[in-house]
User: What shape does this take?
Amino acid sequence: MTKAKYQNPFSATFNGIIDLFRKQIPIGELKPSDRLDGKTCLVTGANSGLGYAIAVQLIERGGFVYLACRSQQEETQRKLKERFNESQFEVLALDLADFSSIQAFAEELKQRDKLLDVAVFNAAMVPSGSKKLASGFDEMFQVNYLSKFYLINHLIQAKMFAEDGLAPARIIFISSESHRTNRAIDFEKLGQFEEYSMGKVIDLYGYYKLVLNTFAVELGRRLREEKRLIDVFAMCPGPVNSNIARRAPAWVQPILKLVFSMFFSSPEKAAKPTIYLATSSDIAGRENLYLHLMQDKSMDIKALEEESGKNLWNRSVELLSPLKLLSFK
Ligand SMILES: NC(=O)c1ccc[n+]([C@@H]2O[C@H](COP(=O)([O-])OP(=O)(O)OC[C@H]3O[C@@H](n4cnc5c(N)ncnc54)[C@H](OP(=O)(O)O)[C@@H]3O)[C@@H](O)[C@H]2O)c1
Assistant: This one.
């Protein structure tokens, strides 16, 4: 078993920076002809950092973009209006920590006449410790994983993806190399609320990214089995100079800001692999495609195990069923 490189804040930051300088063999090239004219996209967590940069670049490539934002909706709307025509985007409210907000968001989307060609599930958080939500789940678990399971199933059941036969629609998960954790998923305990403090946050963040990747693989497998025209991709953007560490203790903030600004990629640069995944025709139909920066890598073997994917699916359904949100197969 390899030693997990991303399980505490120091090794995660150090290894993330080293990765940026490692020689890479890119999967391909993002070309000016990789366009989204006439296509509809969704980006979650689109008010900030990577999500905002992805949304802007999708609009620049001709896509109509729904920006799903928990906060700063008006500010995001104003910033975009300075650059684009209002017919090219719409800002919608979405709080992944609140299932009723996810339901309202999905209903809102259903009322539009557009189907999704590309959906980028980018929103995630790094908390300062555990927090029990009204649902009974821990905030990081719900925001970084369970809400996505719920929202995506909701959108798929409502046939909200464009499956017109021309090219498969695309679901893209923004994940992280930190999914290569030493831990296997504990399906019995998954979703049970447990208190934790800052010291355990990065380890759990990586663990939930493993859960997310396992979901991505299982979702892709199920969609292929059902002959649905939706591809599922995942990626790690590498270290991004964003607001991700905003909940870190105050004393460490100035150091983090300095390190982030000196060594981490700008959100604009870090968005490129996602734009490639959203637009390139070279990757249509690829199974379990995972990019680290622009490099085509295999996910951690734990995420690829079919048994694990099935267990995760069943456990997620079990966790959601008392909330009576959806009926799952
Ligand atoms: N930064 C890195 O070095 C790095 C490295 C690897 C992977 N990633 C991944 O990249 C993605 C984007 O992160 P980032 O670096 O751009 O961080 P960020 O600037 O903090 O952006 C995170 C986004 O997620 C949203 N979000 C958080 N909680 C939410 C909730 N309850 N409901 C809906 N949206 C919520 C945030 O909205 P608010 O502004 O309203 O909180 C924000 O828009 C994440 O998936 C992260 O795990 C980042």
